[in-house]
């Protein structure tokens, strides 16, 4: 009986897991197939001869080289900006009490419910008025926008637990406020920084609407998420090329997730429990 | 001083947009700064008379009502089953179910167009199993498109629901389960009397996250169906996009699109207040009865 339930358990979850990763396996296989093989055996998961021409086509003709670079630059810059602004804000909120603190917390908390879709038009206009339309800087700033409530709260609750004596010792040794923060307090928060970096990386890498509308008239600035959509628009039947583009877009995020899974899951779990 | 940078980003990209939206919604405006004309509430009036808006509005809620229960229940069941540390491979299953969550929704959308297409794996499997006798054009058939979009959305987001529930489950003290076992409670009873009441507060947070996520779905619908076929999967976010950024229908109408966004956001806020009031009155009712 117990062996039977155990077997059913494993069969059910093995089938489910396969269904859950099948699209990725299919995409990976298709990206190595020649057009002919794809038409003959579009569903097989192991290509007969590993053909790299799809990747070459996507990378050069499909402009994925530029898209990849854009995705990397945008994600890296957004991560840096978000880390700076959320850790400082979290430090102030977690450590010090000052007038208006309650209001700030309440407003940031309420902002979770303002969906991007409904602020997209003003954000679009703002970037335009700043003269940053069709520039990478515009995408970066817009992607960094928002209240980042989750990250601020993660930092705030972490900094609240740092013993006061550490800062006092630093002040005694002649560290200024900024110096104390940078070289004493911030290095302690490495686990939080890890969570913030990977979560923000995933969000920015996957972001679609903002880069889509901010690069409508400058194809060279597209990120991967937008680039693949454009590729499909231009090339409805080139499924092996699309699969190669998709692999280029998804491989980094899946690899990074598998390597740093713990930080991500901890951050997410903190979000519901917090 | 230290809170300023974050507040500036917040104010510019979240606070200001709300106010700006209210203003834009009263303009007849194509986005070219000189052409704006103040027209008061005319955008809202037009919106109320547009059957396509109401269709998109209905679809947004339909999508939410179909996807959220599946996500909540599916997430809870898989979390409970995979929370067992004694089961080998439970961790591996968790990771595999979670992978779609971290991947790019717009890319997934495009890949799914093939997988659910007439020569894709879904039709192939269903034909082989004799559940179908001819391929169905899942995303291209107005009758099936909404169902398909919901299925794919649930597939992508089940993993995050599972992780949310796991976080809730793991905060329940083990001693409670041990005590229940000592008292000879059956697993199902333990689940009903210990697990359910203790994860309920977390469940409420998950419900909120799911509802707000489902109501703003955009990336996958845009890349899979673009609201089609024949507006069968058109939701408020794709409706807004069409009026604000797409060139299909002539000059963009930013004011009109803003009005649609505000109207939709307004109903969501009303719903949130309504449910808070209902919960509050239930709670006070319970307290009175308890006293």
TrEMBL record, chain A:
GO terms for biological process: transmembrane transport. The chain crosses the membrane at residues 7-29, 67-93, 105-127, 139-159, 180-203, 239-260. Gene3D superfamilies: MetI-like (1.10.3720.10). This is ABC transporter permease subunit. The keyword tRNA-binding does not apply. Keywords: Cell membrane, Membrane, Transmembrane, Transmembrane helix, Transport. InterPro entries: MetI-like, MetI-like_sf. Belongs to the binding-protein-dependent transport system permease family. Pfam families: BPD_transp_1.
């Amino acid at each position: 009986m117990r062996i039977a339930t155990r077997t059913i358990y494993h069969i059910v979850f093995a089938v489910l897991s396969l269904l859950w990763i099948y699209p990725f396996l299919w995409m990976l296989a298709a990206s190595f197939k020649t057009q002919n093989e794809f038409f003959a055996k579009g569903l097989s998961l192991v290509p007969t001869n590993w053909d790299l021409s799809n990747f070459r086509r996507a990378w050069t003709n499909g402009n994925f080289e530029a898209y990849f670079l854009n995705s990397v630059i945008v994600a890296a810059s957004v991560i840096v900006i978000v880390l700076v602004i959320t850790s400082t804000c979290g430090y102030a909120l977690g450590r010090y009490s000052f007038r208006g603190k309650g209001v700030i917390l309440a407003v940031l908390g309420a902002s979770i419910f303002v969906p991007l879709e409904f602020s997209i038009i003003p954000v679009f206009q703002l970037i335009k008025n700043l003269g940053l339309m069709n520039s990478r800087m515009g995408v970066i700033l817009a992607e960094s926008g928002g209240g980042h409530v989750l990250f601020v709260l993660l930092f705030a609750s972490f900094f609240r637990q740092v013993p006061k004596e550490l800062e006092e010792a630093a002040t005694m040794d002649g560290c200024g406020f900024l110096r104390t923060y940078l070289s004493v307090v911030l290095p302690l928060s490495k686990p939080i920084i890890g969570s913030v970096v990977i979560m923000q990386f995933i969000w920015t890498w996957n972001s679609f609407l903002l880069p889509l509308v901010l690069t409508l008239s400058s194809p060279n600035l597209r990120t991967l998420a937008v680039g693949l959509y454009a590729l499909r628009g231009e090339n409805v039947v080139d499924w092996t090329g699309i699969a190669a583009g998709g692999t280029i877009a998804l491989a980094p995020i899946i690899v990074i997730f598998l390597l740093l899974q713990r930080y991500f899951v901890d951050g997410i779990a903190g979000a519901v429990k917090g | 001083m230290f809170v300023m940078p974050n507040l500036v980003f917040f104010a510019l990209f979240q606070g200001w947009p709300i106010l700006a939206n209210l203003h834009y919604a009263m303009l007849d405006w194509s986005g070219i700064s000189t052409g704006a004309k103040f027209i008061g509430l005319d955008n809202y009036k037009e919106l109320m008379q547009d059957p396509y808006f109401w269709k998109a509005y209905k679809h947004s809620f339909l999508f939410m009502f179909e996807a959220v229960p599946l996500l909540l229940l599916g997430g809870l069941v898989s979390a409970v089953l995979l929370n067992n540390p004694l089961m080998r491979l439970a961790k591996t299953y968790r990771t595999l179910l979670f992978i779609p969550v971290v991947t790019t929704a717009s890319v997934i959308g495009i890949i799914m167009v093939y997988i659910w297409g007439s020569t894709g794996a879904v039709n192939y499997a269903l034909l082989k199993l004799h559940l179908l006798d001819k391929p169905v054009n899942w995303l291209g058939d107005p009758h099936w498109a909404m169902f398909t979009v919901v299925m794919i959305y649930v597939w992508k987001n089940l993993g995050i629901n599972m992780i949310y529930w796991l976080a809730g489950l793991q905060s329940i003290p083990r001693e409670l389960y041990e005590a229940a076992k000592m008292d000879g409670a059956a697993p199902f009873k333990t689940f009903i009397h210990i697990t359910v009441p203790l994860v309920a507060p977390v469940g409420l947070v998950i419900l909120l996250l799911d509802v707000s996520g489902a109501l703003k779905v955009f990336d996958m619908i845009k890349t899979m169906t673009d609201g089609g076929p024949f507006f069968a999967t058109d939701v408020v976010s794709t409706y807004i996009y069409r009026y604000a950024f797409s060139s299909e229908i002539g000059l963009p109408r930013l004011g009109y699109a803003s009005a649609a966004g505000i109207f939709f956001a307004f109903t969501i806020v009303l719903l949130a207040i309504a449910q808070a009031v209902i919960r509050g009155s239930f709670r006070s009712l319970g307290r009175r009865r308890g006293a």
